[in-house]
Structures are given as structure tokens and as C-alpha cells.
Queue: 3 jobs
Job 1
Amino acid sequence: MKIVFMGTPDFAVPMLKAVAKRHNVTLVVTQPDAKKGRKQTLMPPPVKVEANALGIPVFQPVRIGDGLDPIVAAKPDVIVTVAYGQFLPEKVLSIAKKDAINVHASLLPSLRGGAPVQRAIERGFDATGISIIRMVKRMDAGPVLVQKSLPIAPDDTSDTLFKKLEPLGVDALLEALDLIEQNQATYTEQNHEEATFAYAITREEEALDFNSTAETLERKVRAFYPQPGVMTTVNGKRLKVWAADVIKSTDASPGAVVQADNEGIVIACKEGALALTRVQLEGKKPMDVKTFMNGAGRNLIKTGIKLPS
């Protein structure tokens, strides 16, 4: 079959490679190159890099609804999207001769939206998965063709969970394309009354609120790793928290630093306490807490202060 593949991040790359081995990917559509890093260097999306390596033409519209000629010319039997980053209007979906499908990283109707992997960890889910759905006008509301699940480990971060979901996504997508090619695709309508949402992470959410429980914050640390990360403020300086453990009990008030020495940094929460294990002070590299407290942290954070400060 002729496939137009639409995707942008690393998560989509294994699926592009797998589809290209089995089908004729006539066009890859991805987001425009973006400036990244301190030097604001213009960088191509990971899917563009892979498409170039595979010799597949690339189209990077600022808005997917503008200038559809390259997609029309690609004559797709199926349009496949994997974390593309833009909502597809009907005039795009209708270009596909057979179907237009999306690979979504949750067990729909749970966690519709742009951050399903992060929200699954943050909300303490014990399982997630991949749903292959037909694209419709409503966000992630289309009927399900293939669905596969996997457990979430207690130490999973969004980074590790994305890596686990990649091969599951490949299997689910190839199965879905086989069904479509053989005219055997049977879709199951989602139960829309049970839908929940995984909205994109806001900058305000990056700040740790110690009026939450330690378990809630530990999940948030893992959910937001490696992007965008979470942080607190110590004496006016941003301190990112890359890893933490839960301590079950403390009598201190939320935000109070109950320990700050070479053995660790422990901060009281609404219930329990959060033991920071890997941190990054603004302008510095990430490091383990012992290294931090032997250096810049020694005179910055003290037992008894209250965070944020």
C-alpha cells in the first residue's frame, strides 16, 4: 500500500522504519525544523532525519491545512499519524483512499490528548498501551482498530515507558495496516462517557507543590522526566529535581527541609517526605545529591528552611 506517514518525535521513528519495510511510504509529513539548545541551533525533527536516511520525500508545512498538493500527489491508500503534533482537518483525512489512522499511546478512551504517557505515570496507573484508531473530527475519539497493553513499572519514567511502548506501537501499527490491506478492518466505537484527558503539560505544573503527598510528587518527578522536568526554588535559584524517593513519615510542615547533608536532601510534604536523589542547580549539570551537597548545595540549602524559598 501507499502510505503517507505523519510524525515528529523519536517515538515515531521505529514505526516509520517498520512501515517503510512493509509498504511504500510515498511521503513523510513532519513539523518544521525548530531552534533548540542554548545556541538556538535549527534542528530537524527525528522523523525527518530518518526519512532522509530512507530516501523518502519530506513535507514540513507550518499548518497542515495549507498547501495540500504534496499529500495529494503522494496518492496515499492510508494516512498514518504518530505524534505528529497538529490536528488533521477533514480535507486532509479525505485524501486517503482507504483510511486515515492514528497511533495513540494510551488505552483509549482513557487519556485522550497530547501527554498520555506522562499523565499515566503521574496519575499512578498500573497499565497503559497503544491504541490504533481511525481519525475523526474530535481529538482521539475515533473507533479503535487494534489495542495492546503493557504494565507500568513502579520505577518507570516517561523516558523508559516511551521506549517500552515503541515496539508495542510497531506491532499494533503493522497489524492494523495488514487488516486494512486485506479489507478485514473492524473498528470498535469508544465509550465516550468513560473518556479521560491527558492535556499537554503547562509551565506552571513544573513547580513542585509540597502541599501534595510525597507519593504524588515522586510520580510527577518520573512522569516529567526527561521533559520538561520539575523544579523548586532555593534562595531564589531554580533547582531541578531529576529523581527522588518517598519517605513514608515526617512530622514537619510541607516544604520544610528536614535533612540537608551528604546523605541527602529530604523535604516534608503533606503526607510523608520527598528524598531528592538527583538534582540540577541552574547553570550547572545534573548530579547526584551527594556531589551536589559536597559542592554548591552545601551553602545553599540547609535543614530548617522552607521551600520554595
Job 2
Amino acid sequence: MWLEDVGQLGCVRQSLDRLPTRKGRPACHRDGRMVGYAILGPDAEASRGSGTFRRRVFWLLPHDRDTERDGLYATSAPAEAVDPRTLEPRVKGCKTDRSEGGPPSRAMQELGIQPPL
């Protein structure tokens, strides 16, 4: 579930949080803002020990590239950052040239794909 249009974001931070429910918007306990979260199906099992569910949460910090274009992550990305276009249900997501803030790869150039400004 996306809370913002992530099409213009080069990367989002991805965390695996233990939450009390399968669905619904989780509380955000980070300095930044939550931009999305996973909704689990009815067959998702809770942890035997804690009764919580492991759900992905997607978020950004105030100093990330979407806010500070020339800041700390102008040409890199945090370790937990992934390209939101690579995310799918039950698929972790991965880094790309776009998420790393680097120049387009040769393959991107050949396909005419330009990263967002």
C-alpha cells in the first residue's frame, strides 16, 4: 500500500518490522515519513513467540535524496534503500542505477530510460 506516489522517487528505505496485525497502517516510529507498507494475506502466520507479523515498511528520512537533491545521498543510497519500481508482493526489491543516484547504465541509455530529476 503506497501512501505517496513513489514513481518520482529514486529510492525508498525498506525495513522488515514486527507488527501486531496483518493489515492496516502501522504506526511510524522513525524520524522520517512512511511512504508505504505491506498488507499480508489471511494465510500469513504470526510468530509463535511474539504473536507479531513480519511486514515490510517503506520510508524516507529528512536528509534523503527526495528532499535534499545535493545532500548526503546525491550520488549514493542508504544500505536499506531499494528502487520502488522493483518492489512487488513477496519480492524484496533491489538497488538499481536509479536508486543509487548514479548516471544511467548503458542498458538504460540504449532503452532510452532516463532516471527522474
Job 3
Amino acid sequence: MIVGAGGNTTMQVGDQGILLVDTMYAQLSDKILAAIRKISNKPIRYIINTHIHPDHTGGNENLRKAGATIAGGNVVGNIRDAGEGAAIVAHENVLNGMSAPTGVQAPAPSGAWPTDTYVHGQKDLYFNGEAVQVIYQPAAHTDGDSIVFFRRSDVISAGDIFVTTTYPVIDIQRGGSLNGIIDSVNRIIDLAVPADKQEGGTYIIPGHGRLCDEADIVEYRDMLTIIRDRIQDMIKKTMTLQQVKAPKPTSDYDPRSGATTGLWTTDMFVEAAYQSLSARK
């Protein structure tokens, strides 16, 4: 787990090379590569993106150039020719969002685009002697979220479906929803297995924040479910957004997850939750 100013990066290392989950911001690429090289001089073979946001994909182009695509039949995955550099794996909606129709300026450089995408269910890789499952989570943080399950290592990279620093960001403009996040968190809980007295066991790497286990994500799920039910009940009573905000439906969780300043405030979370739940009526 590599922690920096962007989202967390997960690194799997073995004889075949290096696999990364998420690449933070582009300006952090040199620092990420330096951290990688303290552990291994093997080439970067795969980059997996959990979603589209630049704090998780910004370093794609730089880190891809530092890698090399595997040729031959040693790896399961049907990687199409990506030229030089590592293969970038993501849900198709990530590619759709980063690219653009002919004649239109794309929001991301072509060197950062996924080279290998999937549409439904999951994409399976076998790399460094380990099964790696890239599992689609629809309408969660965005419309293109994946969680990445390292089956032998017993590690799950959750992307921004799970964060420990704020309330989850619900990107309404990109198809995100509160219910989708809760469904995805429940999927992670299904995959995770705790050790003694609910501590340890499966490690869960959040999109932002500290390393966690199943007990942490169960607390997170319970918090989101309680807040969801409170807001949903108010919506059923035809309360406006301002009327929902007034009694502070998140107040008992604000000391840990709330914020009044920064990129994602409590008010923004409540507003996005309200919009998301209203749309599902």
C-alpha cells in the first residue's frame, strides 16, 4: 500500500513483475516510482484503475511508460496490443469517460487510457501466481467502479467506494449513487473474512485513508445505511433538501467523517445523497 497526496496505490510484486492498482496524480509519478523501486526493479506489467478520477488515474501515462506489456501465453486476460508499456485495465466506462469522439478534445491524454476493458461482471487475471479479480460495482462512487480482490494475498483494493477520511463522494454527474455504494460495500463484506475477534483477516485498502479490515468496513456500512434510511424517510415525507439538512441527519457521525471545508464537505454529501435517493423513487 503506497500512500500519498492522491488516492492510495496498491502494489503486487512477484517473479512476473509488478501490478499496480491506481496511480494517484501525474505530478506524483516520480515519487511513486521511487517507492516502487525501493521494493522491486521488476517491470510494471499491469495498472488497474478502480475508477476515472484523476487522483487515481493521473499517473497512468507516466507509470505505464515505466512498464512493459507481457507478451506470450503466461498471463490470462486477453490483453490487446498496447504497444510499449504496461497494460491498463479498467471498466469500459472509465475508457469512455477518458476518451472522446473523433474531433473532440479528450479529457485525458491517450497514453493514460485503459488498454484492456470489460463491461459486465468481472475480469479475471492470473499474475505472479495469484488470481486477481477485477469486479464491477455499478452506480456506486461513479458508473465505472471496480474493486480488486487479490485472492491468495487476501487483500481487497476498494477505490473510493470505501474511504476513511470523509463521507464517501457520490459523483452524481458520473452515475454515482448512495445505494450503489452501500451495495458495493456489502459486496466487499461478503468477500472479506475476519480473523480472531473480528480483527485482522482480509486487508482492505481504501481509496483514501488507513489500512482496514472487515470490522472497519462493517462500521462504515452501518453508518451509511443509517444515514440513508434517515434521509430516505424524510424524502418520503416530501421534505425539501433544506428541510433534510436542518436536523443534521449525519450529526452523530460528523466528528469522524464530517467536514465543513475542503473538496468534499458534509453538506455536499447530504445533498448528493438526497439527489441520489430522490432519483430512485
